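Example with several molecule types.
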Amino acid sequence: MRDTLSLINGFRGIRGSMIMSKDGFLIVADVKDRTDVESIAAYASAIIIEINRAWPKLNIGEFKMFSVTGDEGRIIFYNTGRAVLVVFLDLSVKMTIFEDELRSAAREIERKIKF
Amino acid sequence: MNYLRRFYLEREIKRLEERISASPQPNDFIKILPLYIELGEIPKAEEMKRRARQLYPALDLSRIPLDKPEKAPDFDFSKEIEDVRMELAANPSPWLYGRLARLYLDSGAVEKAEETAKDALNLFPSHPYPYVLLAEIAVMRNDRQSAAKFFDLAVRYDSSSAVSIVHLAEYYQEVRDFDRTRKLLEMLLLPHRSVSVSEPPKAPPAPQDITGPAARDTAPAPPAAEPKKLRESGRLESALDHALSEGGPEDPRYVSYVTSLKTLSFLQGVVIIDKEGKVLASDLPYALSEDDVRSALNNLWLTSMTQAKQMMLGSYRYSAFEGESGGFFIFQAPECVVGLLFDKRRRLDREQQEIFEFCRQLFS
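Resulting structure tokens for the full complex:
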């Protein structure tokens, strides 16, 4: 799974990536700076809990992806079944450029975690 | 004939009469004649037949009987059922399943009609007609709750199904859910909406995105209500009166934001709340409760905003959530929070920046 993360991190504008469990525990991380990945996993799980509460009300099926954007960066979370792929991005990054690669990485992680 | 069937026939006849008057097509004559006959309007049927023959002498109208063949005393149900079953085996379609189910119903075999409708549902799970059949069978059994559930599904798959809409509106009025009743009745009033359940309508062209302040000037006005149409039914009028008496007026400023936001492609619904979670304006599909979407928006916004700070993302700007069948976008404006529901054709992963730019300029 580290290989997959390294591949993701090769894109310009990506600060790092990690895989976490849905209940907020870090599985593996590959980040370039001193990001506190364990805390981020815990904070992200609060959003996942809220998504699980809100989702039936919105009637839009199981969640596949969510992102949170602030004026200093963006984090994207991909649902990979039993885990979540987390990608840290610069604000300047245009998602259209490598979104397909990120999805395919998420699918690969899903396959790896299943078996 | 019950009131709903009459309502449906009258609306469908009106629609076809308008089409024939504007541009008479052979198929429209073929469609309208059985409707006149079912409604007992035999002189009108004869007149329409005469007109069709004048315009299209080669058109064979002789096979359109003056009454439903099933009503004839010597009608052979077994043979007709066998014929339809053979046709179904060769060329299955929701309409043929419908014909078979109705034959079973007319011959008193309600259980077999239900089985047939369920078979249709297994083969065509995204088609509205099997749901309409199951709903009508539930109505016959006086099981209103199941009927509402099936009509609800039928409306999800064909938002122009007048029969389903009217049944559902009645149900929600009875259970005093006036928000849903109002939204359903508004669906009937939308201009250019086909009310046929026998012919699925073409989807309207998706609006192009308009970005920048121009959106405010070019956004189309919301469809005006047509009170005259409401009077087609006293019950509808009464339901609408009830519905309209609920809730207070929305702030025109936020209503205009909603109108502009509706120009975004594949948008299904909008809700704008203040920072205390109170709804300022909304326009949501009938199937969603405003209060449910409001609370989902409020909670997701509060959590995202709090966690954005914790995750060192700086000041919160927006969140995008993508599900299997749609997406939800949250934008924080200076005075309010906006929730946008999209259908699954809108890729929020790729297009969130564009939507953010649109919202930012609109609310700046």
